Amino acid sequence: MKAAVLNAFGSPLAIETLPDPLLGTGEVIVDVVAAGVAGYTAGVLSGARNYMLEVPIVPGPGGIGRVRAVGPDATKLKPGDWVYCDSTIRSRDDAINPDTILLGWTARTPAAMKLHRFYHHGSFAEQVLLPTENVTPIGAITPAEAGRWTALGRLLVPYGGLLAGDLKAGETVLVSGATGGFGGAGVAVALAMGAARVIATGRNRKALDALVARHGARVVPAAMSGVGAEDSKRIADCAAGPIDVVLDFLPREAKAAQVETAIKSVRHGSRVVLMGGVRGDLALDYNWIMHNNVVLRGQWMYGRAVVPRMVQMVRAGLIDLSAFEMSEFALADANAAVAHAAEHAGPNQLTVLRPDR
Ligand SMILES: NC(=O)c1ccc[n+]([C@@H]2O[C@H](COP(=O)([O-])OP(=O)(O)OC[C@H]3O[C@@H](n4cnc5c(N)ncnc54)[C@H](OP(=O)(O)O)[C@@H]3O)[C@@H](O)[C@H]2O)c1
Prior knowledge:
CATH architecture of the largest domain: Alpha-Beta Complex
Structural class: alpha/beta
CATH superfamily of the largest domain: Medium-chain alcohol dehydrogenases, catalytic domain
Number of strands: 17
Oligomer: single chain
Radius of gyration: 20 Å
Shape: globular
Bound molecules: NADP nicotinamide-adenine-dinucleotide phosphate
Distance between the termini: 13 Å
Number of helices: 11
């Protein structure tokens, strides 16, 4: 198969011919049709983000494709099915505390390296091998629609967070970092789940206005200044009532104080879900958390059962994939796709590799 290979951190992707993957029991081979290219891909491939992965590797965390072959234990999947390939692979020999990798992206912990070495190559290739449970049918689509369906990879992350935060219809959600790729998807998903009001925070006013233009009056923009007291007041004014759930997607460049401002805005009994990349320690009042029954939790990715539910949300029209601006690149242009993704990393922008072209 043809694949875009990272032979060394910092070197460009090389288009090479690799052996086709070999099918085992409990596995599926998918012909990749469309693979999303995240805005921060260049930082992963250069090594700047320090992702734990071994080269040479075909990068690419999942995508959309058609089943090529299934193992003997697959009871429903069959060759030809259109599927979403989920890169979140969990070791199967510890149900309580599994080692987890993102296929073709990061092993995250030394304990997960064994899994990373076996399920190694990602989706910037004509074929990808996955555990059967990582492949979810999306129903019939045309090849032209495949690129847009890569948005599932963006949408599922905040969906996992909002489910972890037990969001209920009619509640008020604050999304921190709403002008970014995952935060912006979080706004769309919160609305689709029935949030009455989504307070969207960010420093970029133009991007906040664009969110309101796209989603309507249930989105209330809260432009952040970085001054804690000012930002707290703006959030309270925008909420005009209790905040039930905070979904934080602030990146590693953000300060912990920005996260704290959002956390401290919540009501008694609210839920705060941390999904971003902030590196600092949070200074939070133990007594305040306790007396206010505040639930503070982290969330990495999402459980596998939510994938078919998100597919249904798209099919039902609750999530509109046509709202994404999309640019597609042939596999041979993988390096151009990575550069394009970095320049077009907004909340409704998709960069897609098409190994079928
Ligand atoms: N938990 C998970 O499963 C999971 C999955 C995927 C990604 N992530 C993490 O989520 C984070 C966000 O990813 P993304 O792709 O959405 O990032 P992104 O597109 O760069 O968005 C970052 C957001 O943070 C805001 N921001 C606030 N303070 C900032 C600062 N000091 N520097 C830069 N931006 C600041 C930006 O908006 P303004 O400029 O308007 O303020 C923007 O809304 C990353 O850390 C990523 O690693 C987590």
